[in-house]
């Protein structure tokens, strides 16, 4: 794999140390303010999720009447989005462990998703944040399915069709993420034996069974029983079944879009393995900024994205309450300007368009190397 040296950001040991210290200072200053305000915020989010879910499921119990069915499906989809993005994802990062409230314990929190919490914490919290955008180490880069860099070998049997099977990923994203935890790409290519992943498979089976039974068996059956006195059991059960299915798809499509806009836009950098050899904290900060993209938007947009619209700040401070990212962002932007570090940010639809462009471009052989695969420039005590 050929690579180029990074030509942005701190260029000397002194500059890198100062860059690191300034980001550390931002983190320390925000951490001192974390407390009751953040606890009230996450409790409000929890109650919002519960109210939306109960309202949505209640409306679906009224059957196929279009206004109530559509509204119920919409509310259920929104509840699942907030549950996964602003609640589950952030709680499982340990952002609210300071509360000592078992409802918000990052090690035990369970979300409305087919992906087991244990696998998510291991694959996402550790591997992804350790090896962000490092080709050959970051398994989340393309999720083992998509070729998104010229550093990845092109296959005429597979990659020309990646735009098509990506559509399946979009619609059934939670299922792909769950299976991704098993390193299915390595299983299919024989680089990993199924026996090595037996424990992960057992966890996935249990979680998938629980989610499937809840949305597609028990709740439709409950609806049928409730509607029995009105002679509408079958219609109401089918309405609930369809609403649950569509609610999950709404969540899947949105989660896919937000996550892909965070790391697969046109301007993100990728890195080779040499980048992380002897990597300092400051160099890690630089890699996180260069490998992430933000989305401009309203406060509602930030909540609906789990504040992953501030993907750069999230990657710098994954264990700080995400509701603090908006106030941190201007400080990080100022530091990036000072040290000539690109700060990738744009509106949602333009960012999503660059993701699609990237998927299409790398479905073909070759592709630009440019800033997409670089190693850090050797640091010296003198200006280059």
Overall morphology: globular
List how many beta strands DSSP finds.
4
User: If helices are DSSP runs of H or I spanning 4 or more residues, what is the number of helices?
Assistant: 14
Compute the CA-based radius of gyration: 22 Å
Structure description:
The model is unreliable at 370-376 (pLDDT under 50). A two-stranded parallel ribbon has the order 1-4. It has a two-stranded parallel ribbon with strand order 2-3. It has helices at 13-33, 36-60, 66-91, 117-130, 162-171, 173-180, 184-188, 198-227, 233-263, 281-290, 299-304, 311-316, 325-338, 348-361; strands at residues 4-5, 294-296, 345-347, 374-375. The protein has 14 helices and four strands. Helix 1 crosses helix 10 (281-290). The protein has one domain (4-35, 130-375). With 384 residues, it is mainly alpha-helical.
Supply database-style keywords.
384 residues, mainly alpha, two-stranded parallel ribbon, globular
């Amino acid at each position: 794999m050929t690579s180029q040296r990074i030509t942005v950001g701190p260029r000397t040991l002194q500059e890198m140390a100062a860059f690191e210290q300034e980001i550390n200072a931002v983190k320390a200053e925000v951490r001192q303010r974390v407390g009751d305000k953040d606890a009230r915020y996450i409790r409000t989010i929890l109650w919002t999720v519960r109210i939306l879910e109960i309202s949505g499921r209640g409306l679906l119990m009224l059957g196929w009447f279009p206004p109530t069915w559509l509204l119920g499906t919409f509310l259920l989809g929104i509840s699942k989005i907030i549950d996964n993005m602003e609640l589950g994802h952030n709680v499982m990062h340990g952002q609210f462990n300071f509360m000592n409230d078992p409802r918000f314990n990052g090690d035990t929190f369970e979300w409305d998703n087919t992906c087991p919490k244990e696998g998510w914490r291991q694959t996402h919290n550790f591997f992804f944040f350790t090896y962000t955008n490092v080709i050959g180490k970051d398994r989340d880069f393309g999720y083992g399915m998509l070729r998104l860099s010229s550093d990845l070998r092109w296959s005429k049997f597979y990659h020309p069709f990646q735009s098509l099977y990506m559509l399946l990923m979009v619609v059934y994203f939670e299922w792909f993420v769950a299976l991704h935890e098993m390193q299915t790409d390595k299983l299919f290519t024989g680089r990993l034996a199924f026996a090595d992943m037996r424990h992960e498979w057992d966890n996935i089976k249990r979680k998938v069974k629980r989610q499937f039974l809840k949305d597609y068996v028990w709740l439709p059956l409950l609806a049928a029983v409730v509607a029995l006195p009105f002679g509408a059991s079958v219609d109401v059960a089918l309405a609930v079944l369809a609403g649950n299915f569509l609610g999950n798809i709404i969540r899947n499509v949105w989660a896919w879009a937000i996550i892909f806009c965070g790391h697969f836009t046109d301007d993100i950098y990728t890195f080779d393995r040499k980048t992380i050899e002897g990597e300092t904290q400051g160099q890690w900060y630089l890699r996180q900024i260069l490998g992430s993209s933000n989305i401009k938007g309203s406060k509602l947009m930030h909540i609906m994205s789990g504040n992953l619209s501030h993907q750069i700040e999230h990657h710098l401070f994954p264990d700080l309450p995400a509701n603090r990212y908006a106030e941190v962002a201007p400080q990080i932007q100022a530091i990036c300007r000072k040290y000539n570090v690109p700060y990738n940010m744009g509106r949602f639809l333009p960012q999503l368009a660059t993701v699609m462009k990237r998927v299409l471009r790398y479905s073909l052989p070759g592709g630009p190397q440019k800033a997409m695969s670089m190693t850090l420039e050797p640091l010296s005590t003198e200006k280059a």
